[in-house]
Write a structure and sequence with these properties.
Helix content: 25-40%
Distance between the termini: 26 Å
Order of helices and strands: HHHEEEE
Shape: elongated
Number of strands: 4
Oligomer: single chain
Largest sheet: 4 strands, antiparallel
Structural class: alpha+beta
């Protein structure tokens, strides 16, 4: 269970106080039901496959916690570029995660050691 300090650090103070005021009249069983529903929704979202962006070819996929790492070839879209005829530029590592229901990505580069913990 998260403390109110941990929760308030994740959201704006105004949103935290407004939400806390709205939930204050709820009893423990209602709060537990809400918590279970939110956890189920988060689990469903995390399990859903990530879409593949057009112009990219996925070579490998790894999962680290809530982050999906993908090794991809990328096409730049220029008709005169070599990537229009072959696999593409790369291969490059990208990190994908979901934040507030949206998929975000981050370029990690060619080095797979950047992509592993420890």
């Amino acid at each position: 269970m998260l403390s109110s300090v941990a929760i308030s650090s994740m959201a704006s103070p105004q949103l935290f106080h407004k939400t806390r005021a709205q939930l204050r009249p709820w009893d423990t069983s209602d709060l537990q039901t809400l918590d279970d529903a939110l956890l189920k929704e988060r689990t469903r979202e995390d399990a859903a496959p990530l879409p593949v962006t057009p112009g990219r070819t996925v070579i490998a996929t790894r999962r680290q916690g809530t982050v999906t790492l993908r090794l991809e070839y990328v096409r730049c879209g220029k008709a005169s570029c070599h990537c229009a005829q072959d696999a593409g530029h790369g291969s490059y590592w990208y990190a994908y995660s979901r934040k507030a229901g949206r998929v975000t990505s981050a370029y990690l580069g060619k080095d797979a050691r950047k992509c592993t913990r420890g």
